[in-house]
Amino acid sequence: MEQVETKRNNTTMSAMLWYAIFIWFASSLFSQSLYMAFNGVPYDALMLLQDLGPLYYLVVGIEVAVWITLGVLLLKKIVQKTWFGNTTQPSMA
Length: 93
Description:
By secondary structure, the protein is mainly alpha-helical. It contains 3 helices and no strands. It starts with a helix and ends in a 10-residue tail after the last helix.
């Protein structure tokens, strides 16, 4: 019973992380397109980040962490699909 609950929590956490990554990516695209709609040119993200001052490093660190997380998740998914295949076992319930 505990194993089923742990697996359900892991699945839910994984799905939530994917949703967060997709929302983050979509908001970046939306932000850029909205800026271009009003100004005609894309914004210079580096200049905007540098205007943040010391918070610049925090924002860059968060973005790097998101990209690393995305890479790890994709790699994990690829490894599970290729090496372990689809080894779902029927439930005993």
